[in-house]
Amino acid sequence: MYAKHTVFYDALPHHFCEFDLLDRETGDFLSTPERRRVLEGAPVVSVPVLHEGPLRTLKDLTALIGPSTCRTPAWRDALVEAARAAGQDPEVVVAETDSDDHMEGLYIKVEENGRTVERYKWVRPTFVTAVLDSGSHWQDRPILPNRVVSRV
Asked: Pfam families attached here (predicted)?
């Protein structure tokens, strides 16, 4: 998560965050409990799990969307400062950045018998709009580093 894409983070727990673990022998992605077991005691930062178990409605699912835990209230100022430090035009960088304080979306898994059998990504509609309105793809822009918390 080193490079800013559409969202700028100024409080990442690390530049490398785990959200899936592939068993190379079986080709299966491990379930959440199995990932926890395998990674126990390892110096790996896993993304937060917001919910485990079935959800009954789309409203129950979208209710999990909240403010990003990887952005401080001062992230906009940090973005401008990072752009200047990288020699980039802050106005352009701000225009290419999602201004919403909420998390980008949800990574959804269906797990059975210790493995992940389905994976989905749900992004909030305003994030999609920010991507479309930015005018370019993040891979075609100069790299702007996201920031990690000071203890990293």
From this structure: RNA_ligase (PF09414)
